[in-house]
Specification:
The longest helix is centred in the N-terminal third of the chain and has 30 residues. By secondary structure, the chain is α/β, with parallel strands linked by helices. The protein has two domains: 151 residues, no CATH class; 99 residues, no CATH class. The strands form two sheets. The protein has a six-stranded mixed β-sheet with strand order 1-2-3-4-8-5, with helices on both faces. A two-stranded antiparallel ribbon has the order 6-7. The chain is built from ten helices and eight strands. α6 links the parallel β3 and β4.
Length: 270
């Protein structure tokens, strides 16, 4: 039986049960969001071939310090560097996960590249979701404020939000202040922390906490419904590099350095 068969059986079973995970979206929707994120993880892992790993050039001088100062063997070090690259590609997918979860709340929907991330179906709310509070520079913040202001001006009954899922405190306040030397404010443009935004949309004060506490259970249920073969996909970069070292007799770091910088003076002698 394939992955879709097991997953479909799990979904059909949950349809006839009271919510197992959270009380503001269906279990079916929750598991769909988990499945989408799992696909993003698999795609990110599978994308790290040796060619992709080398795309932005590997800083083997820094990796040498990392290996010596942190007492890490070279293979473990490269695996950690590969995981770091995977993590970078996953960050956007985490934001998408929150958008999809929130889009499953009754009365709201995902923007789907329409200029906003989440909106109320009656056009009384528009939101742009950032996973972390520090993901924008001043120019990006200015552009976002101007975009949210345009929505607020176009839809007179709407409130517009810059959502920081992982914020430095819990808040919901008018977004005003100086950006790039200009004063910005609007009576219906807000900035809001993730917990407060989850509460606002769901009507449940502890909605984000519910998500956090039940996420391990939902992920476990999802993984148990997936064939093991679908979980085994991994990056190939380290294996490709090790095959090269068997022929060249170089260390892993020397092999990576040679393949990245053999055109530098003296590096062709590695």
């Amino acid at each position: 039986m394939n992955e879709n068969h097991y997953f479909s059986k799990l979904i059909k079973l949950l349809i006839f049960m009271k919510n197992k995970y959270v009380d503001f979206i269906s279990d079916e929707h929750f598991l769909d969001c988990v499945a989408n994120l799992h696909s993003a993880y698999l795609k990110a892992k599978n994308n790290i071939t040796k060619k992709n790993f080398y795309t932005n050039k590997v800083d083997t001088i820094k990796l040498t310090f990392d290996a010596k100062f942190n007492d890490i063997d070279e293979e473990s070090l490269i695996q950690a560097e590969i995981l770091r690259q995977i993590d970078k590609s996953i960050n956007n997918s985490i934001g998408t996960f929150h958008e999809q979860i929130l889009g499953g709340i009754n009365g709201f929907e995902v923007g789907n590249l329409s200029g906003f991330d989440i909106k109320a179906k009656d056009d009384t709310l528009f939101a742009d979701i950032k996973n972390k509070h520090n993901t924008m520079n001043s120019s990006s913040a200015e552009a976002l404020f101007q975009k949210l202001s345009r929505y607020a001006d176009t839809y007179k009954k709407s409130k517009c939000y810059w959502v920081q899922v992982l914020a430095k405190s819990s808040f919901c306040e008018l977004w005003k202040g100086e950006i790039n030397g200009k004063e910005y404010s609007h009576s219906r443009v807000y900035k809001i922390s993730g917990d407060q935004f989850y509460a606002l949309l769901s009507g449940k004060e502890n909605a984000l906490f519910q998500l956090y506490k039940n996420l391990p259970i939902a992920v476990k249920d999802y993984l148990n419904s997936v064939e093991k073969s679908e979980l085994a996909k991994e990056n190939s970069a380290i294996d490709e590099i090790k095959i090269e070292t068997e022929t060249s007799k170089r260390t892993i770091l020397d092999q990576i350095t040679f393949e990245n910088y053999s055109y530098y003076l003296g590096f062709d002698k590695l």
